[in-house]
Structure formats: C-alpha cells, structure tokens
Design brief:
By secondary structure, the protein is α+β, with helices and mostly antiparallel strands. 17% of the residues lie in helices and 38% in strands.
C-alpha cells in the first residue's frame, strides 16, 4: 500500500494534511495532521485513527493544504484483530 500512496508525494513538518476515508459513499473517518515528516507517518497515523472502521474497500483522500497536492486511492481495509479479553469467575 505504501508504494502506491506515496509515489512522488512530499510532506514536510510544516505542512497541513487533510485525510478522509470513505466507505460505501460515506465518510467514516476524517482527520487533519500537522508536524508529520513523511507520507508514511501520515498513513501510519490514519491506520491508528481509523482502527475501528469497517473492513472492506475504502477510498483514502489526502490533501496537502500547504503544497497544494491532492491524491485519492482505493484500497482494501482489513478487519482489526480483536484483543484477547480474560474473563474471571467469582
């Protein structure tokens, strides 16, 4: 995924990045990022933030308000693995 999204995209720590994740025509996640030094940092932050988003195909839109570029990619979102919960009987 990283090689598709970041091809030729530059991000500096002073840039403001607007991210939107859409699924089935609805916005399921939206965030604004600043202080990121690479597109990989932005993608990692989106992955953490959109952890609860449903699995399946999603459209990721990124806009760099400082440099003026916009990119949109369709990708597959995999379901997050549920954390184990220990149950105790009293």
């Amino acid at each position: 995924m990283k090689s598709r999204v970041n091809a030729g995209l530059m991000v500096s720590a002073t840039d403001v990045i607007f991210a939107t994740v859409m699924a089935c025509g609805r916005t399921v996640f939206r965030a604004t990022y600043a202080g990121m030094s690479s597109i990989e940092d932005v993608i990692d932050a989106i992955r953490r933030g959109a952890k609860g988003v449903m699995a399946g195909p999603v459209t990721l839109s990124l806009r760099n308000g400082s440099q003026g570029w916009t990119v949109r990619r369709t990708m597959m979102r995999h379901a997050a693995v549920a954390e184990a919960t220990q149950l105790t009987l009293f």
